[in-house]
C-alpha cells in the first residue's frame, strides 16, 4: 500500500477512490489529486519540511476563518511513516497561471481587483509584533500575535492553542536591508551588470520608520489560484509567510499580478489598487519596495531564475524580463532621490 492510499484509508475508510493523479505544487510538497466514486474529491499532500508545513496549514486555516479569501479547507492532517501530511478540500477549476494572459482584458482587470481585495483583507486581519518569518506559537508561549492592541491574534478557532507569531527583532530598516541583500546575493552571474546598482539603491533608500508588521503572503499570484471561468475560487499555497510592511506585500503581489503575464500592466496595476482601496487605504510603497519585489521574485528558493509570462519565458528571455523590471525601478528610485 502506498502512502496516499494509506492516508485515504485512515481518513476516509468508508469511501471508494475512483482515481488519483499526481500534481506539482511547490518544491517541498508531494501532491496527489483524489476523486471519490460517490463524487467530490480531496488533495493529499506530503511535505519534506514538517515545521514549515505546520505553519502553512495554520495560515491556511486562519485565512479561511478570518477573511473571505477563497481558501480550501484543511480537512485533516497527521504523520504517516515519519512524513507529515494534510488532506485538503479539492476545488474544481483550472490553473489560472495558464489562463490569466488568455482571458479577456475585462476579466483580467476583474481578477486583478480580486487579488487587491484579498491582499487588503489579509493586511487588515493579521498584524504581528516583529518583522520576519511567521511561525506557529505552541501552547504556553507568551505573546498575543498583535502589535497594537486593536486586532486579535491570528488564531485558528478550531484549535485555541494555535497562534501565528513573528518574533523578529530589530527595526524595519535593518530587516528590510537584510531581506533585500539576501535576494541580491542569490541572483546568478547573469545579473552581475546590475548588482552594484541594486546595492547602491538599497543604500540610498528612505524607508518609513517601523510600520506595523502585516502578513506578507510570499506567493499570492495567479499561478497559485484556481479559476472557474469567472472568478478565483481558491487561493493555494500559503507557505513561507512573513511579517513585513504592508507596502512591501503590496509591491510584490502587484508585480506578480500586473507585470508577470502581460506587457502593458498599467490597467491591471490600477485595478489591483482599486480592489485594495475598496477594503482599506493603499499603503505607502517607496520605489525601493518595488525594486525589492522584483529582486525577490527573480530566482526561486534554489537560485534558479524564475520564468514569467505564459507560455513561460526561459533562459536569456527570462533574465531579460527581470533585468528590465529592475532597471525600470532603479530609474524611478534614482529620480525620487534627486
Automatic annotation (TrEMBL):
Pfam families: APH. Residues 137-157 are annotated as: Disordered. Residues 138-151 have a biased composition (Acidic residues). Residues 25-280 form the Aminoglycoside phosphotransferase domain. This is Phosphotransferase. It comes from Halogeometricum luteum.
Amino acid at each position: 500500500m502506498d502512502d496516499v492510499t494509506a492516508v485515504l484509508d485512515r481518513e476516509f475508510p468508508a469511501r471508494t477512490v475512483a482515481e488519483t493523479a499526481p500534481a506539482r505544487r511547490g518544491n517541498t510538497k508531494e501532491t496527489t489529486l483524489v476523486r471519490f466514486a460517490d463524487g467530490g474529491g480531496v488533495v493529499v499532500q506530503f511535505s519534506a519540511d514538517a515545521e514549515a508545513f505546520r505553519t502553512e496549514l495554520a495560515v491556511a486555516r486562519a485565512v479561511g476563518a478570518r477573511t473571505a479569501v477563497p481558501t480550501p479547507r484543511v480537512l485533516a492532517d497527521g504523520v504517516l511513516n515519519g512524513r507529515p501530511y494534510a488532506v485538503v478540500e479539492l476545488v474544481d477549476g483550472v490553473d489560472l497561471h495558464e489562463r490569466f494572459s488568455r482571458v479577456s482584458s475585462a476579466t483580467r482587470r476583474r481578477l486583478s481587483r480580486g487579488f487587491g481585495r484579498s491582499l487588503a483583507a489579509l493586511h487588515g486581519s493579521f498584524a504581528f509584533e516583529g518583522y520576519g518569518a511567521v511561525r506557529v506559537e505552541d501552547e504556553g508561549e507568551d505573546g498575543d500575535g498583535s502589535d497594537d492592541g486593536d486586532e486579535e491574534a491570528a488564531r485558528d478557532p478550531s484549535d485555541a492553542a494555535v497562534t501565528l507569531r513573528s518574533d523578529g527583532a530589530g527595526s524595519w530598516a535593518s530587516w528590510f536591508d537584510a531581506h533585500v541583500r539576501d535576494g541580491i546575493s542569490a541572483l546568478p552571474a547573469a545579473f552581475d551588470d546590475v548588482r552594484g546598482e541594486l546595492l547602491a539603491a538599497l543604500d540610498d533608500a528612505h524607508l518609513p520608520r517601523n510600520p506595523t508588521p502585516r502578513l506578507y503572503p510570499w506567493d499570492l499570484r495567479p499561478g497559485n489560484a484556481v479559476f472557474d471561468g469567472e472568478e478565483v475560487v481558491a487561493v493555494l499555497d500559503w507557505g513561507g509567510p512573513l511579517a513585513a510592511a504592508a507596502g512591501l506585500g503590496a509591491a510584490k503581489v502587484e508585480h506578480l499580478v500586473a507585470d508577470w503575464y502581460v506587457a502593458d500592466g498599467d490597467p491591471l496595476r490600477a485595478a489591483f489598487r482599486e480592489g485594495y482601496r475598496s477594503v482599506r487605504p493603499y499603503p505607502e510603497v517607496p520605489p525601493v519596495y518595488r525594486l525589492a519585489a522584483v529582486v525577490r521574485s527573480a530566482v526561486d528558493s534554489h537560485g534558479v531564475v524564475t520564468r514569467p509570462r505564459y507560455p513561460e519565458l526561459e533562459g536569456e528571455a527570462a533574465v531579460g524580463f527581470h533585468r528590465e523590471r529592475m532597471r525600470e525601478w532603479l530609474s524611478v528610485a534614482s529620480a525620487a532621490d534627486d
